[in-house]
Amino acid sequence: MALGKNYDGQDCSLAKALEVIGERWTLLVVRDAMYGVRRYGDFLAHLDVPRAVLSQRLSALVEAGILEKRRYQDAPPREEYVLTPMGRELWLPVLALAQWGERNLTRSPRRLFFHQPCGTRLDQVAFCAACGVQAPLEDVEVRPGPGLEGARDDRVSVALRAPHRMLDPIP
Amino acid sequence: MALGKNYDGQDCSLAKALEVIGERWTLLVVRDAMYGVRRYGDFLAHLDVPRAVLSQRLSALVEAGILEKRRYQDAPPREEYVLTPMGRELWLPVLALAQWGERNLTRSPRRLFFHQPCGTRLDQVAFCAACGVQAPLEDVEVRPGPGLEGARDDRVSVALRAPHRMLDPIP
DNA sequence: GTACCACGGTTCGTTGAATGAACTAAGGTG
DNA sequence: CACCTTAGTTCATTCAACGAACCGTGGTAC
């Protein structure tokens, strides 16, 4: 489709990336997946996205190799969406963008990120000075920051108001 | 406006950031500004974006404090758009996203980034190991990578096929 | 066994935004 | 005086987002 998602003629890896994760809602779906959201209904509850759009985005992310759809229960049959390694690598740009928003668009931080093995707070490039490593997503813990207001009360929002290891499924 | 740009109810700095730079074309405009593109006509030539959309995006970016519109010539009156400090801070997420695209969606790198003061190649978080600093945008030089094919031949594309310091205006 | 519910979607009419071509306006240049 | 450049605006058409309603599969309660 030449309209809506493609940036034809842009020979640039940023444009390529945006063709995959640049559509409305897509990066928020990825963020939720990083927080451990896996089920259609949970994405829906947390995002207030039209169902048709969510279906389309999930399929597109699976197609692109960022999410994997897999059956986690047979009776009744239920599927879940989990990040692939390629999807987990989006951690860095997502964090950088969120931190930019935090520094420039909000008063105080909504969420803080920590290197789970050592408890050190992470900066915008996820580099843990204490350990001297770039923290992979699996080793990151989120905790609510001072700026987080409890506006929403869907399952997912409530679960994420407690400290939580990234990728751990929502209860 | 509840439609199209807002992510109402998402109490999250990523959503806030996406409200500002998440619309179609917006991040490509910012990328071009980082490369040194400043004039309406140059953005237009490089991006193949409809004129009305470009006008809207440029105004929105000025409104958001990411670009500054300023007169660089009086007869005839001409304006240019340059990144503000807040806009320059988008460098990190833009780089991280582009590098993700490069690693996961393309064969070989389109463009390589170097720490201009010392000539060291930069990684996805713009950390210069030789100098031990996070390189600011002003100190970065782009050079074409092996994967860059000379498909486009507009003014801007041609100019960017030579090594070029970030933010330096297109000739 | 039958009514009801949870989950994960699809369908569809309405609204808003992107597209691209044409037009405008200010001000030089030959 | 005709024409060119730059930076837009206007407008009809096309496409995608929205949100409400509907659908299908397979439990669970009575």
Biggest sheet: strand arrangement of chain A? 4-3-7-8
Quaternary arrangement of the chains shown? homodimer
Largest sheet of chain A: 4 strands, antiparallel
Give the total of beta strands of chain A.
8
Which percent range describes the beta-strand content of chain A? Answer: 15-25%
The gross shape of chain A turns out to be: globular
- Pair with the biggest interface: A-B, 51 and 51 residues
**Termini distance of chain A?**
38 Å
Structure, explained:
Chain A contains seven helices and eight strands; from the N terminus they run ααααββααβββββαβ. Chain A has helices at residues 13-21, 26-35, 40-47, 51-64, 85-88, 91-105, 155-159, and strands at 67-74, 77-83, 111-115, 120-121, 127-128, 133-134, 140-144, 164-165. In chain A, the strands form three sheets. In chain A, strands 4-3-7-8 form a four-stranded antiparallel beta sheet, with no helix packed on it. At the A-B interface, helix 1, helix 2 and helix 6 of A face helix 1, helix 2 and helix 6 of B. Chain A binds a DNA duplex (30 and 30 nucleotides) through residues 1, 3-4, 24-25, 39-41, 44, 49-56, 75-79.
